[in-house]
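Just curious. Invent one:
>
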Amino acid sequence: MLALARALDIELVPLNGASCCGAGVIKQANWELQIALNARTFAQAEAQGLDVLTPCASCQGNMSEDFIKLATDVDLRERVNEQLESICGLRFEGTMKMRHLLHVLVEDIGLDVVSAAVKNPIDFPVAGYYGSVMQQDGACGEDDIYDPHYFEDLIEALGGKPVNYDSKAKSVGFPSLLSEESSALKMTASVLSDAKSEGARVMASACPLSHINLDSYQVKAGRVSGSDVEMPAIHLPELIAFALGAYNDRYAQLKTRVLVMGN
């Protein structure tokens, strides 16, 4: 994030003490705890006159859901604000926005600006993975909920060849990996094999949590499913940073991996 922010003149202001969004886990046990934690993060940003930016589609989806609930349910908002005021002296008023890096680059920075900053064009086919959590009303910016194209537009601006595949917004089963591993691995394999069958040599993920499945559990997903899933999987910010001239050694390693395993 820092490398691409410097290259594109984006000022990132850390929210010191901000908590996890819940990652789809906390709300399964205690939804009121999750919404209070996210309300605190929102209130921290509002106190500084800032929006919240995340590179994580799961955070974007979870936090956008909670933001909308807090903004539209007066009773809930007052109940949560009573907790916030007593604990940290903050209130949520609904003046900030919840933004994902992908949407900021396309809608605010502009793909023409991104393209002009490219120093190392991404010269191979890339499958952009959105995940499912972010693709909902109020969480995916002005992109199409059901047939998103922002990621493909960005890949093209970075010099790459975007791969269009049916599973780009399907779930890979995180956090079900913790309780239903076999099912989650099969879901992961389905996404990877679909992208690879359409010609992808690399998968870039807009969700670091999904990336755990797509990368760390890739070999296991292939074994469980019996399908061809071998492909380098990287984070969206990495892809952008490589194209903008950062981490040349790591980009060289990625290109080597593409040659070795991305066929």
In short: The CA atoms of residues 121 and 259 lie 16 Å apart. DSSP finds twelve helices and six strands in the chain. The first helix runs from residue 2 to 7.
